[in-house]
């Protein structure tokens, strides 16, 4: 098997799946395979891949060969590839628990589903009702040839780094910086949220002793030999140690681990736990278990199984019927549930929404994903089920004139009921105005058919300035 097609929603922003796509394509090429990459939105990462002599296209008809296997990232792009190549089997890889574009598609030639951690596995099995026998876990990995081991850690950390595209002034970044200042620890920031991104993190990570981040950023830092504290806007997990690294890697060093409040004192406590010897052992474990070669072998084995697999007993219509039946059962349970209480202004004041980084510039009518988390400080369970449902939405206001450009926009439901005291991660697709200009995105919630939360409490709406341009290349931007 030589011709491998990898799909991805975009190759222009250096997000996690874009890095994965690049590393897999280069890795397969080094093994004598002929990878090809499709994405409807090309940019810097696409140029890197193409620079290595790997075909990268934004139209499937431009591929130089028919793929023997489709390695699918993202729902729409995977289905487009399956439609374009009716003889090719496929696997689908889920990288995100909540993003709509990572929801697993159903197709008779989709033989295996891959989750990058237990969180994504739950989405595949518990939300998409995919049989456990069809689901595998292949964790994220690091190209160890790029991320080489640094010199041994000092006895006390001297330099710290916040490594995250979602760190920006006014949010959790301020908390980490305050904690480092109180510990007399110099701290820098790398990430697009502060306009301090880097194309070569492997060249800078080794300069830091302690890194704050999550997911891929944390994994790359650990592979380099830094000590790492898992945290972001969702909260705090803590310092990665030899006691927790195996379990935490199962959850991708990510969102499900961050159950503690991100406070200055909590961060200081984690800094005090810094142990250079333990940090070295953690890094050795990561380098032994999370190298790119392990993922390449695992995926090649799956490709072989997919190509050799016999057609399953269930027909395509039967699979779809069972999935729709499960969805209907969920809807029936929701319809029969008790209505939510009508939230008062005093309740809304106890809700908190924190948004991750949002794009500064998008194309006219372009779509992008807003992510963040909702904290429920009320005494009530928040829900999008039954009567009086709560949902996310947004408005667009012209920044210069303060004129409301677009008031009514699509809603996004809560992915699950939110008990009192619970913090729920969320994502929502936002559609930009059709005319160019400078706009203010006003992100808010509402209780359907009752009240918008705008004005009921000072924290609503959450505002972000966005410049809308006439640029077809920016029609889709994903911040995930």
Describe the model.
The chain is α/β, with parallel strands linked by helices and 480 residues long. The protein folds into three domains: 3-138 and 292-321, Glycogen Phosphorylase B (Rossmann fold, 3-Layer(aba) Sandwich); 159-285, Glycogen Phosphorylase B (Rossmann fold, 3-Layer(aba) Sandwich); 345-477, Immunoglobulin-like (Sandwich), CATH 2.60.40. The chain is 28% helix and 25% strand. The chain contains twelve helices and 23 strands. The protein has a seven-stranded parallel beta sheet with strand order 3-2-1-4-5-6-7, with helices on both faces. Strands 14, 16, 17, 18, 20, 21 and 22 form a seven-stranded mixed beta sheet that branches. β1 (3-7), α1 and β2 (34-38) form a beta-alpha-beta unit.
The multimeric state of the shown protein is single chain
Strand fraction: 25-35%
Instruction: Assign the CATH superfamily of the largest domain.
Output: Glycogen Phosphorylase B
CATH architecture of the largest domain: 3-Layer(aba) Sandwich
The CATH C-level class name of the largest domain:
Alpha Beta
Mean pLDDT: 89
Secondary structure: helix percent: 25-40%
Give the strand order of the largest sheet, numbering strands 1, 2, ... along the chain: 3-2-1-4-5-6-7
Q: CATH topology of the largest domain, what is it called?
A: Rossmann fold
Q: Total helix count?
A: 12
How many separate domains make up the residues?
3
Which sheet architecture does the biggest sheet show?
7 strands, parallel
Task: Provide the descriptors you would attach to this structure in a database record.
480 residues, disordered C terminus, Rossmann fold, 7-stranded mixed β-sheet, 28% helix, 7-stranded parallel β-sheet, Immunoglobulin-like, 12 helices, alpha/beta
């Amino acid at each position: 098997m030589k011709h491998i097609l990898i799909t991805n929603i975009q190759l222009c922003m250096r997000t996690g799946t874009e890095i994965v796509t690049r590393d897999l394509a280069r890795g397969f090429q080094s093994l004598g395979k002929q990878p090809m990459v499709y994405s409807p939105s090309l940019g810097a990462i696409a140029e890197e891949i193409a620079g290595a002599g790997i075909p990268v296209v934004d139209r499937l008809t431009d591929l130089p060969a028919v793929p023997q296997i489709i390695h699918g990232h993202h729902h729409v792009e995977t289905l487009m590839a399956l439609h374009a190549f009716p003889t090719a089997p496929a696997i689908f890889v889920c990288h995100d628990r909540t993003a709509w574009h990572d929801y697993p598609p159903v197709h008779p030639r989709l033989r295996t589903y891959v989750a990058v951690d237990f969180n994504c596995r739950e989405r595949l099995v518990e939300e998409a009702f995919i049989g456990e026998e069809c689901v595998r876990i292949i964790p994220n990995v690091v190209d160890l040839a790029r991320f080489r081991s640094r010199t041994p850690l000092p006895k006390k950390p001297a330099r710290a780094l916040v490594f995250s595209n979602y760190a920006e002034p006014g949010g959790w970044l301020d908390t980490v910086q305050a904690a480092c200042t109180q510990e007399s620890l110099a701290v820098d920031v790398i990430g697009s949220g502060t306009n301090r991104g880097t194309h070569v993190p492997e060249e800078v990570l080794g300069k830091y002793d302690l890194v704050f981040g999550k997911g891929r950023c944390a994994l790359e830092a650990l592979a380099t030999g830094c000590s790492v504290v898992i945290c972001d806007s969702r909260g705090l997990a803590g310092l990665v140690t030899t006691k927790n690294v195996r379990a935490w890697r199962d959850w991708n060093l990510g969102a499900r681990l961050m159950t503690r409040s991100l406070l200055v004192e909590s961060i200081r406590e984690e800094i005090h736990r810094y142990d250079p010897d333990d940090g070295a052992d953690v890094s050795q474990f990561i380098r032994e278990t999370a190298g790119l070669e392990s993922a390449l072998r695992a995926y090649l084995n799956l490709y072989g199984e997919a190509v050799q697999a016999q057609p399953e007993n269930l027909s395509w219509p039967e699979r779809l019927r069972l999935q729709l039946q499960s969805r209907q059962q969920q809807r029936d349970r929701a319809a029969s549930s008790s209505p939510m209480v009508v939230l008062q202004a005093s309740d809304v004041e106890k809700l908190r929404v924190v948004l991750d980084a949002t794009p500064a510039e998008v194309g006219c009518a372009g779509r992008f994903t807003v992510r963040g988390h909702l904290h429920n400080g009320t005494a009530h369970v928040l829900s999008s089920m039954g009567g009086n449902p709560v949902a996310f939405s947004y408005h667009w206001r012209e920044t210069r004139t303060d004129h409301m450009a677009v008031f009514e926009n699509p809603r996004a439901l809560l992915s699950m009921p939110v008990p009192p005291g619970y913090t729920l991660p969320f994502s929502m697709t936002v559609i930009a105005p059709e005319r160019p200009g400078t706009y203010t995105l006003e992100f808010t919630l509402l209780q359907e058919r009752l009240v918008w939360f705008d004005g009921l409490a000072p924290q609503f709406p959450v505002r972000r300035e966005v410049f809308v341009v006439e640029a077809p290349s920016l029609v889709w931007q994903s911040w995930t």
